[in-house]
Amino acid sequence: MLDRFNELEPYSLEKADKRSLLFHELKELTDFHRINCPQYRNVLSTLNYDSDHCNELEDIPFLPVRLFKNLDLKSIPEDEVFKIMTSSGTGGSPSRIFLNRDNAILQQKILLKLLGNYIGKKRLPMLVIDSPEVIRNRSLFPARGATIIGLEFAAKKMIFALDENMELNDEVVSDFLEKYGNSDFVIFGFTFMVWKHLYDPLESHRIRHDFSNGTLITGGGWKKLESQKVSPETFKSRGREICGIRRFMDHYGMAEQSGSIYIECECGHLHASIYSDIITRDPITFSPCKIGEPGIIQVVSVLPHSYPGHSLLTEDMGIVLGEDDCPCGRKGKYVKILGRIKSAELRGCSDTYANQFK
Questions:
Q1: Which of 30, 107, 171, 291 has the most CB atoms around its CB within 10 Å?
Q2: Does any domain span residue 7?
Q3: What does the alpha-carbon distance between residue 307 and residue 32 come to, in Å, rounded to a whole number?
Q4: How far is the C-alpha of 17 from the C-alpha of 34, rounded, in Å?
Q5: What number of H helices and E strands is found in the chain?
Q6: What per-residue confidence (pLDDT) applies to 153?
């Protein structure tokens, strides 16, 4: 059924058509994973799940995202495992996500398609605010490295701005801007790392570079910045002042549903594509919330085929702000992330790294 999705632009379906496509694909995935993943089958049995009584999107059963920290959930034979992705987290074991080659390629393909809707289909030079050390092990690596490797396919050239000691290499940055700074390029970094390892050293050393032709793509790391009273508006304002950055693109996503990211549009809203959706649920009753009501975020995605990660209850709170009516013109739900549920584990890629800095 993914062929039907791939014929469409990623933000082109209105509510009724998208719900119909998503529901049928997710219901098929639920049955597929029940057959092929014994642990998932046990969960559905405990929930008394009956596919005959699953009639709409909200009826698709969900797994708590933390379950991936305790169980190795996969719907493929061991000899098909191509890549194991690990999530970030400060406590306990990280989540382990098992991908076969086809699923890894699918995730990369959709990620490129989503990004292309925002920055164009042409591959651009990318300056990464991180150290190349983060991607040394390509078979088993943290979510931070996995995100960067996923973006590598979208880059004409990928250059790392930090050295092995996580210090800004100004010579590398200057060389990058001399070669690519006169036309469109991408800067990628997790928010706290951009704040600490790009903004801070440039400001403290009074270095001024012209990043005005760049689009800064960020994600994660807000918990540490919020504890320092840094709002998204302050983050962008400082980027404009120090670097001359004019275009900012945050995103929300997780290793457990890699490829299904929710990207910030020109209006500052995070958008669900035709491949995924967000349902917010009441923290007490778990019933779906209405538009404008805060709730626990459930994420669904048609991409996880090698493991049962197609419907997950996260540990984040959010609000669905609207659907099909964002001024940017993209169809689908657009949302605001409110932050972690109180006492939930700190687990974002950049938040986990930022926790080293007290």
A1: 107
A2: yes
A3: 10
A4: 26
A5: 12, 15
A6: 79
DSSP class of residue 324 equals S
Same domain? For 32 and 113 the reply is no
pLDDT at residue 223, as a whole number: 75
Rounded Cα gap, residues 65 and 69, in angstroms: 8
Q: Are residues 213 and 305 in the same domain?
A: no
For the chain, percent helix, then strand, then coil, each to nearest 5? 35, 25, 40
Would residue 166 count as lying in a domain?
yes
Question: Are residues 247 and 289 both part of a single domain?
Answer: no
Q: Structural domain of residue 316, as residue ranges?
A: 2-75+276-346
pLDDT, the chain, mean: 89
Q: Identify the band that residue 356 occupies on the pLDDT scale cut at 50, 70 and 90.
A: low
Residues 67 and 184 in one domain: no
- Quote the tokens at residue 292: 């404008």
Are 222 and 351 spatial neighbours (Cβ–Cβ below 8 Å)? yes
Q: CB within 8 A of 241, min separation 6: which ones?
A: none
pLDDT tens figures, 193-208:
999 999 999 999 998 8
What's the number of domains the chain is made of?
2
Query: How far does Cα 242 stand from its chain's mean position?
Result: 26
Report the C-alpha gap between 67 and 46 in whole angstroms. 15
CATH no. for residue 184? 3.40.50
Q: Which SS3 state, helix, strand or coil, does residue 105 take? A: helix
Tell me, yes or no, whether 173 lies in a domain. yes
Burial label, 201 (beta-carbon count in 10 A; 0-12, 13-18, 19+): middle
7 token code pair:
């014929």
Q: Which residue did the predictor score with more confidence, 76 or 220?
A: 76
DSSP conformation class of 331:
-
- The alpha carbon of 329 is separated from its chain's Cα centroid by a whole number of angstroms, namely 21
How far apart CA 194 and CA 228 sit, in angstroms, is 14
Tokens of 97: 């996500």
